[in-house]
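ingest -> validate -> predict -> emit
validate: passed (alphabet ok, no gaps, 763 aa)
predict: started
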Amino acid sequence: MSKLNITVNDHPYDLDIPESRTLAQLLRYDLGLTGTKIGCEEAECGICTVLLNGVPVDSCIYPAFKAQGASITTIEGLARSGELHALQKAFIDHGAVQCGFCTPGLIMTAKALLDSHPDPTDHDIKVALKDTYCRCTGYTSVFNAIHSAASELRGDGPLPWKAVKTVEPLKAVGQPVAAQEAVDKVTGRARFADDYVFPGMLFGRTLRAAYPHARILAIDTSQAKALPGVAAVLTYQDVPGDNIHGLVYDDWPVLAEGKVRYMGDPVAIVAAETADIAAEALKLIHVEYEPLPVVGDPEFARSPEAALVHDEWQDGNLLKHIKVRHGDVEQGFAEADVVIEREYRTPTIEHMFMEPECAIGVPAGFDDEHPKLTVYAGSQIPYDDRRQAARALGIPEDQIRVRGTLIGGGFGGKEDIAGQIHVAMLAQATGRPVKMLYTRQESMLFHPKRHATIIRIKTGAKRDGTLVAVQAELYGDGGAYASLSDKVMTRATTHATGPYEVPNARIDCYAMYTNNPPAGAFRGFGVTQSAFAVESNMDMLAHELGMDPFEMRRLNALRVGSTTATGQVLHESAGLVECLDWVEERVRQLPVPPAGSDGAGLKIAWGIAAAYKNTGLGGGADDAAGAEVEIYRDGAVEVRASSADLGQGLSTVVAQCAAEELGLPFDRVRVLLSDTDLCPDGGPTTASRQTYITGNATRHAAAAMRERLARVAAEQWDVAPGDIRFEEGELRTGERRVPFATAAGWLLDEGHEPVVAYRYQAP
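emit:
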């Protein structure tokens, strides 16, 4: 320990800290200023940016003692006297705040830019933000916010946000309002999983596999257990319940037993007094392995020569063979004037959410707030976390509470179990809270990715451009465990004819086990891989036929009344032709590039690709969500749903739905999400389903509460319930009106239940 004198947000500190401390660790763990986030610890993502004597630095690698005597400004110090800085206001007003994990880094980087460039150009902003990443927004809103803040700081006032037209007579739904957590996200008060701290909390770490495929002959944890400061070391023998979990198939061990199947497999877990001790303990766990042949390719995985990834699986390495058949594909190709046949390969892709996985387990009875075993995690499916954890722990589901924290990006990558079961086990074993935070390297090693695919596709068309047949063979690399490979590769298969009418098709897909990282949900859910192959062939067909690529697609586009490759008749929401028309009009307005070159030897061109994607779970799955609406005597309303908000704005959507039904101002509705003890099950936050599913659950619950209030008010005024209007926070009939709070009091005084629950089932 050494002495450090430093000023942070105008407050002087005299500290004794370890000499190994980074500035980010100092701010987060010694001063409790958790607004500074850590995403990579390699100075790559920039979201840890703070100002040191006015200069932006990556605090995740900046030695704390290098800041001796310096003045530091963090996101918590930007607002003054309760007034948000112009940048903080602009980020909210221009919709530049989504998941919020990168927001502090972006704002602090922008602050340094505006201090030196009061009127920055787009190029200036690009240069300033080139090493400060955001995974959610696409940066357009960030640029707009920075320009707006610059304008306000120069004295010219903020720039207006582009107006949104709301369908009449809607008053709340569709209005550009800030999410309830937006202010917390721009000020550093928002709490993600790693921002929670509990008294006596231990630190967890995971020992990962040393080989991608190997038998485990022996595990010796004795030296690790003997290390001072170690509270627990657990292996598969210590799993209280079933040593297995999975979203669709139960094939993923909680802790590796018998063998490891990829480099991310967990072999042992440790809880210790400090993160450094936990890391040292991992080095003292000795595992004896017998390496096995590695299956590294999905096509090879199907061959007789391939080793078995799962010895007990009855179909070798084949997880699932998925088929689509309609028409007569041989006859279709016989009618074709032009046939294009190619092979395409798409790689494994990392989600790169900015927040690495983190989970905290708090043992039952720890304090009054935690009477039962509680897991804190940023999860896309809290109820499924609870189900899988309960099975592994061998206890009833209602004995575990999952409390979803804010999520620093997910994109499908936070659907599977990560550390949730492990921290629950360690908390039970030690009787103390345990936090497990993954490093960026561990996150990339462990969690499921976008599926790598091999796609061979043959497309036939007549001379006029009409498609007549598609034949395709797809291999999907599912990795070591199933995750959602079944569902993802089914979607790749069913969309392998593209958004087009194709009378004849034969498609075979093989989802395979390999010794690569598991593959699971990722934005686009398998359709992106198919679309790459389909659209490449479409471009080649258009070229061979001498057709305009827009016209080729327009001719074959699915329309209302069309039948998809799987036999679904489209009754609505088939807007591809209108989309193509809109895009083509704007493409034709682009300036003609000079002689195919930008002067630096680079060719300039534009291209067109089209795709379609289902929303909702599909495949006959039970697509439903529940929501509760509760009223309070002060006229406030709370909506509760276990669905997760990853920055897509679900909390705003459900608040607007409730406000619209009850005639309330938006700010009178608060939202609680992702708590399995307090919120009904909303299903997974995936497949673009939550606005429709949980939004409808909220709408119906609020409508039922409105009917209750209308009946009570009708009795008070001796009118029909249908005569009661809910407008501007009041109940009205004729010339009479009362505040919503008064009507809520009437309802509660009569002993009515203040909560209405509704479960919405998708048709």
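The chain has a mean pLDDT of 96.
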